[in-house]
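Hi R.,

Here are the chain sequences for the assembly we discussed:
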Amino acid sequence: MTSRRRAFLWVLVAVLITLIFGFYSINSGQTTAVLAGTVRAATLLVLGAICGMICERSGIVNIGIEGQFLMAAFSAFTVTSLTGSLALGVFAGIATGLVLGWLLAAMAVGLKVDQIIAGTVINIAAVGLTSFFYDRSRSLGVGKYSPIELGSLADIPLIGRVFFSRPLLTYITICLIVLVHIAMFRSVWGMRTRAIGEHPGAADTVGIRVLRLRYFNATLAGGFAGFGGAYLALEAVGAFSRNMSGGRGFLALAVMIFGRRSPFGAYAAALFFGFATALQNQFQLNSTFDIPTQFVGMLPYVVTIVVVALSGLFGSMRDPAALGQTYEKS
Amino acid sequence: MVDVLIGAQSVTKRFPGVLATNQVSIELKPGRILALLGENGAGKSTLVNMLFGMYRPDEGSVIIKDEVVNLQGPSDAIRRGIGMVHQHFQLVPPMSVVENIVLGAEPKKLGLVDLPEARKRVLELVTRFSLDVDPDALVEELPVGTQQRVEILKALYRNAEVLILDEPTAVLTPQETDHLLQVLRDLTTRGVGVVFITHKLREVLAIADDIVVLRNGQVVGTTTPSASSETALAEMMVGRSVLLRVDKTISQPGEVVLEVRNLEVDDDRSQRAVNNLSLKVRKGEILGIAGVEGNGQRELVEAITGLRASEAGEILISARAVTNTSPRKIASLGVGHIPEDREKHGVIGVYSVEENAMINRYHRKPFSLRGLLQRKAITSHAKEVVNEFDVRTPRLDTAVATLSGGNKQKLIVGREFSGEIKFLIAAQPTRGIDIGAIEFIHRSIVKKRDEGAAVLLVSAELDEIIGLADRIAVLFEGKIVATLDAAEADREQIGLLMAGVGVS
Ligand SMILES: Nc1ncnc2c1ncn2[C@@H]1O[C@H](COP(=O)(O)OP(=O)(O)OP(=O)(O)O)[C@@H](O)[C@H]1O
Ligand SMILES: [Mg+2]
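And here is the predicted structure of the full complex:
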């Protein structure tokens, strides 16, 4: 990033913070609600973005995140409603994600199916399967993770509410972001992953098993999306409804790109997109402004278009060179 | 003590439509240097790729340290102490030098890459073998010569007992080559064995202990430097006698075709690479640009061909200003370009030979009529190019990526020469090309000149410049420091100018 862009980012952050505190002094209740909503929406997006990032860094396009979310949310919800255990539900969600990730690898890496088609297969299958079984299970809410206050941190005005009194899965997500960031840029696994996404041939000549690592990574990445699905069903909403992922698996891809395929970047981007979502919800809840709800509902999508279009300002990032290509050994 | 460090026993490898190697046997003993010679497409790379586990032989076996081995992949070979520097760089461009060197064999601390340790080990190697590289630079920002050094460091880092080098000197300057040869000799005194592929006979005679010559996938001769000579080797390779010198008449320069005035061009890192440079090339003459690689040659060529923006100055072709115009417009003025980086700017690997043979003119007649490609015209044109320029390919619809390096180059040259050209810009036109083909390309360039084309020749091979050019401009740090008449040029003097000696 050039220094000009960096300065631009800092200015943006400063303006945002000033605005937030300004609003907070005028209307603390609503400001807190919007920011809490921001973090809630961002958690799902960042998990999807991490899934996409791990895949893309390895050279695989994953547009099946949407389906992975949905299917994982469904199985997480179902297992919890059968067993009454939230934890088992989360594990079921992760397991579903892993299986779908492996399926993506099997199609895209193993069978060398076009990667976009492989992802689409997952999305279509997810909608079909969950709708089909949904009718019969017809469950109501099964309860959800409730906020845990982190001691005195939770008492800090604004920030305490927004970050330190969240339910368990949000905390886990924040830990995961840090972990994956370190792993991607500092660990042996991360270095090899970046290598196979950029130049699989070179990785091959130094003895890295390209196909095996791609399988592994796509599967692992699915686990993150699966965790995201579980979060959606068992923490954010506490129920399952048809098509509840609502396009956020695709939004996660925009978050990933905007976040320059790094976990920290993705979280910043996710918070930004989450803010748009939260703002929209807040507008819809209280009708101080007389804007038709349809227009308000467009907000996150308009933000997506504008932001993706402007993302060049933040330093355009090249795609990994081998993205979307199958690797063939002679 | 092992007897045969690495070897092949009657290995045969077939590709669709090609018998790449046919019952080839070689063996390398510890502390010796084996040179592999042969025309483009003779099967040299295929052979060494089998030794390294990249390809599996269809028949025959690979021997490592007196044992018949069945290599499943490069990791097997690496584990057995084989290191290889590939003909096409196997480096990850956006990663740093250190990362590239240790990739696959990373020093670890708690599962993380121990970069400080890696850096330390790399620096040790850098000093031990005086292979000067900045460990923190990104590979994509390095000139090819330096990338080559990174490749060698990669093998040394893995403590290779056998070092296989597939045309390592093709991209090196004479100084760098001498240095590499020194490094290799150094290694052999430590018991390392070296397999060395090159097209440069002088190097073979200077360094090899044993020489094996391949033609059409078969061993056609085995000799030693003392029992051989450049002409003898050339003949053995090509199967006929080869003229090692270019035959040409004195040039008859006409009007100016290319004029560059006060040109300023930046490199990828936004550093000034071409600095207030002016030059003229006339009809019917060859201007050679001599210089150590990385002194602005690449940027100059890219600016003239429209591949890179110029910051200031003017470029005129046939008196028309073409500064910062599109490559297609420039090409349409009758400019032929043989690019330095053939993989990147020369061919599209996944396209066929046929398509690549006309890719610079696909939108024009006769290849395209009313927006539709004309297959017949395309095929017959490709046939001509392939025949005339002796491109060895199994079929016309073969993907260019599978051709041997030299044959790709011949295809590019053939394509660029088959159009009507007023101005030819040739950057490293014979890099990686066998003796017979060099002779042919040199003759073609001189022929174009005699037909009235202006030629700008950029080459890191001093012999090529001296042999081919009518006038020689020496480039140093983005400036032309001297322009000499080829007739009075002296190797020594140009070498000094290239190194910046005597330049104020
Ligand atoms: N992966 C491949 N698929 C199909 N054909 C191939 C492949 N690799 C090489 N060939 C063919 O095998 C033959 C031998 O190629 P090879 O690359 O070994 O030649 P080489 O001696 O290294 O030539 P050069 O000096 O040009 O590098 C050529 O005809 C080439 O077209
Ligand atoms: Mg070769």
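Chain B touches chain A through 29 residues (CB under 8 Å). The mean pLDDT of chain B is 90.

Let me know if anything looks off.

Best,
T.
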